[in-house]
Amino acid sequence: MTFANEILAWYERNKRDLPWRTTTNPYNIWLSEIMLQQTRVSQGLPYYQKFVENFPAVEDLAEASEEKVLKLWQGLGYYSRARNLHATAKMVAYEYDGQFPDTYKELLALKGVGDYTASAIASICFGRPEPVVDGNVYRVLSRYFGVDIPINSTEGVKYFKQLAREVMHLERIRDYNQGIMEFGAMQCVPQSPNCQVCPLSSSCKALKEGTVGSLPVKLKKTKVKTLYFNYLVPISKGGLTILEQRTDNGIWRNLWQFPLLESKKELELKELKVQLEASEHFSKALNVSRFDPMSIIHKLSHRHIHTVFWIIELNDISNGGIPFEKVEQYPVPVLIDEFLKRLKNSYFWPLNDSRL
User: Using one digit for the tens of pLDDT, what is the confidence trace for 169-218?
Assistant: First the structure.
């Protein structure tokens, strides 16, 4: 049996029951593929279900506010995906009359749609003979064929795309592409795969040569930068606080946050107080206290953010204050969302005049 046929046979026996597998509607397939980029199925599934419930069709997503899209996306990370998702929904709804293009080349022109997503939509929705190459496929192909070319090199990207094209099943491209991705996610997993029950074990070059654990090969990652964030969480006697919207071009653009003070190292309380004395909002703080005893380290692909939340107790907030109970209505980075959950189980909650 050929490689492709083995994959198809395995997929028929082992495929998971996932909602986007019951349809070939390009809106649903596109939504799932964007959400599952760098995200496990178990994590992405609830978000997919929320989006489909709130936006049943691409026109519904196009007409939604960016704030609502970002709020529903909150916690999934890589927020540029959500912004691109929204932009593409508008493009499809208003420029393509609600119909997704059906060719790889046209799909590639949509914002946020790269080679992998365009190939997935073209093959799964429209039966186009386009091979998909994601992290799972890289792993399966590199191990089975014993290829040690770095998958994140220019040479590797071209090589594996061509290899994927050569071995794909043309007549059953829809099932084959889903099958090889599923095979990598469930059988040929990154760590300690159970090769003894693998249907490809007898012809897997990596298993034969003892290189399963070292494939696929990746070039060294970019050096990780360490940042120090001090979030200033104002709480007034009237239960007001302050939120600010990020307007930079970073990953959290347009999300909301408490006033942020960046520093070159972790600040001590007395160092923070010195800086607050020159602040418009916080110079008359009644009390300043550190919320978490240890800094929270939030790890992104190229940044490790050491974060401390400081509770700033105030008599009042004169300009720009919002009721604290409304904070949950705003889209915020997951770092702040997790803080809010801890706050509700802390000494500071509920917020009321007797506490302050």
Answer: 999 999 999 999 999 999 999 999 999 999 999 999 999 999 999 999 99
Distance CA 35, CA 29 (A): 10
Superfamily of domain 3-133+150-182: Hypothetical protein; domain 2 (1.10.340.30)
Burial class (CB in 10 A: 0-12, 13-18, 19+), 172: middle
Cβ–Cβ under 8 Å, residues 36 and 56: no
Superfamily of domain 225-343: Nucleoside Triphosphate Pyrophosphohydrolase (3.90.79.10)
Q: Known catalytic residue: 33?
A: yes
- Collapse the DSSP code of 231 into the 3-class scheme (helix H, G, I; strand E, B; otherwise coil) and give the result: strand
Report which DSSP code applies to 196. G
Choice among 6, 33, 130, 182 that is catalytic: 33
- Please say whether the beta carbons of 121 and 190 come within 8 A: no
